[in-house]
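Researcher: Please generate the 3D structure of the following complex. Treat every line as part of one assembly.
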Amino acid sequence: MSVQTTEYVASEIRSPASFFASRVFIYGALVFWAFICLFPIYWTITTSFKTAVDVTQGHLIPFVDFQPDWKGWRSLGLSPDSIFQTSTVREEFLKRFMNSVITSVGASSLAIVIGSLAAYGLTRYRYHFAWFKNEDISFFFLSQLILPPVVLALPFLVLYREVGLLDTRVGLILLYTLMVLPIVIWIMRDQFNSIPVELEEAALVDGLSIWGAFFRIVMPIALPGMVAAFILAMVLCWNEYFFAALLTSTDAKTIPVMVASQTGSQGINWWSMAALATAAIAPLAVIGIALERYLIMGMTAGAVK
Amino acid sequence: MANQTLPTNAWPADAAPYDLISPSRKRFGWALMAAATLGLLAVIALEILYKTEADTVGFETWRPVVYAYVLWGVAIGIGQVLTRGEDGQRALFLLPALLFTIAMVIFPTLFGFYIALTDWNLSSFSGRKFNGLANFWQMLSDPYYRNALFNMVLYVLAVLVEYVIAFGLALLLNSQIRARKFFRVVFLMPLMLSPVAVSWMVGKSLMEYRFGPASTLARYLGWENPAFFSDPIIARISIMVLDAWTFIPFMMIMLLAGLQAMSREILEAARVDGANAWQTFWQVTFPLMLPVSVTAVILRIIFKLKLADIIITVTSGGPGGATDSVSSFIYREYRDRSNVGYGTMLAMVYLIIIVVFVTWLLKFASRFVRNVN
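Model: Done. Output below.
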């Protein structure tokens, strides 16, 4: 085997020149795309440290092109000199931030709980629900994925007003749960399918109940999948804009809605916009870097057999 | 209700009914479910009577009905276990998600079909009037809606370009490179970030006509008048680019997983047979990747059909509705004109169109994949 591998590598390197050229091409393309991915983020972060002049003159590099300034962050009440003073903007920002955290964590948790249970049931037992069988029930859940938000938005607007859930976090949590539930069920079905049934059979023989076997045996094994589904759901809920824009006004407004509504009467304050955008994307950027493995796991569930 | 979920004992095979259910327990379970159903119906009936002012006792909002539904769900769950023992316990796995989804989807969608048949403007005082298919006829002669539908076709076609780029990136990440993890994290980044925040910063400032670096670069490259959002065609392309930036990583990750799952032996065999890199890709890699590719493209199209937030934040459909997607058009129909009835009709028609389209797409894709393999 090892001999074959060296042969393979040797045939790969035909001549030093062509090897070098292909290396240059590959790394050039990689660096180019990395630049495309990172430049908007770089632009957002640096703009939050610019003054009006620096923005309109298109300065790019801090300390070389322009002197960083806390202006943007001060307008949010988050700069070093204003952080200990009272600031209504900061209070509003923190309120929106907490709304985003509560709705996305709440919705993801709820979706994980009911989604995992349903996925487990669907992979392990056979159901008949009237004339619907397992495949039909699975399809029913997954088909929710194609339902565009715009179809539900207006009926929900009316219904939520009748039920008194308009502009509440609970209302948003319920909708977001609905939105991510198909994805959670998709990922968790894949997870449970990869766990051998024999484990639970052994547990049942040892006297555990069905639910006991699920909680004590299956859950711990499926935990990485649950984390993956949870994080993917978090990302989707955190970034959701459409429902939040339609169904919230003062109390339950989330960060994306706050970002989108930042057009002042005197045009756009780029520096405070950029600071706000930075604050909105920072939590997910951190999650993305730290938990990238789980994200990839969630996204590739069921894609490759 | 109770007979509707009937797990047959597929697994584990319980030859003997080892938990025997006493008749009294069974009766209690039935009584509980019946009582809960009656209670739910009673609350709904009371609320309807109150709202139609047939009686004076009732609740201000419909919220008690929601609570009643939740309690009813709990009672049904308990009743299942009481009457059917272990089978009931199995049904309990599925019930929460099922009751939740039915309540959240079926009822609002049916209600939506009703709203679609009414003339209802939130800002007018006349309230809701049933007007049959009038909204539908109005829709047929609405050039903006037709334009939005046409744009959706263009936006969906753009997925193919995204697919080519994503495939290229996946191949790059799969080749023998250093710092693979670093590049993977960086390439994944755009997917994580809020499209609203990013499209604000990119669409409105990076691509700003006077000072944006993208415009500066375009001028440098010889485009004299780099206005990204004033010409209808260029504006559409700009929206496609912004959306592609966000979602290319999604396809890239799926394709990368597919590439990594491919066995090296097949590639080596191709090489031994004297195929060059180009031939290997088209004769071996690409056909083997077809199932993954189809899954990635279909999922991406499904997400694309929901495209709205970038358009709402960057162009609000402009110039002159040229960049509107169906979702953003309906959003403005409601936000600017409070036209709930008409907007819902548009949404319902869109729903029917995409259900038909996606069903066809799935059929087509499965046949396509089978024929090639």
